[in-house]
Amino acid sequence: MKALTLFGFVCLGVAWAQTAPAPPAAPGAPDLPDDTVIAVFEDGARLTVAEFRSLYAILPPQYQQMAQQSREQFLRYYAMMRRLSQEAEKEKLDQQSPYKEAIAFNRAIVLMQAKVGTALSSATVPSEEIAKYYDAHLENYKEVKIKAIYIAFSSAAASQNSSSAKAKRVVTEDEARAKAGKLLAEIRGGADFVKLVRENSDDETSKARDGDLSTFRPSDNIPDAFRAVVFALKQGEVSEPVRQPNGFYLLRAEQVVVSPLAQVRDAIFQQLRQDRGMLWMRQMNTATKVEFPNPAFLGKPPAPASAGK
To answer: What is the distance between the alpha carbons of residues 187 and 177, in angstroms, rounded to a whole number?
Structure first.
């Protein structure tokens, strides 16, 4: 639970850091100078374009939508919000429960997010550390272009097929496995892989591209069986048949390359900065002390009495 909470705090801080430095203008807002006054409230306070942008950046989605649909409607609502909050302060509602606790809690959340965001956005990662990480994790940046032969099977009996002589006969799993094994033996014996694709593959999409299936990267969401095989292949190598729910694949690695450091440098920087943020959060958690004088409140048995008492 603690780990989840810390991770949540870091995510909140990242989101804050991403939005705080450059508040966006409301979509469709006129391109006016920052110091242009766009609203004057009844207490004499003035709202400028720059202040509106900063306000818009922290609005919940429903209020941003209101501002997008009608800036006038939003500013009227905001004016009413200011007036009612000022009246609440005059009545000292901010000093009464449960309002004072809600204000204090939400203030703490905002400041926590600000602190986490500032800590993360100010973290530095030396270039040599990025290069070291890259060298140690080359497998993470591998790209494997795959050609495939797909042999489909079905649990349906052959008798369930159309009686048409031209209908394709259902292949059982055992038959598909045997066919895939036979094709693999032919490939390893020197047969033309692309020719076998055209003659045997049941994947019409990749078949039309001479077997080109996809270029896979470790970050892709692919089945575990594929992942284990694809990234173990050397260039030009063909896999053993890979079983999937409805067929077997023979996979050939057409090209195996590693993305250059320049291409992945930013991603590594973000990863290392996030790692540092998580470490910082763990250190903060360890350094934060709190005492619990009443175990019963926590649902724990009372501490044993000291000897001699």
So the answer is: 15
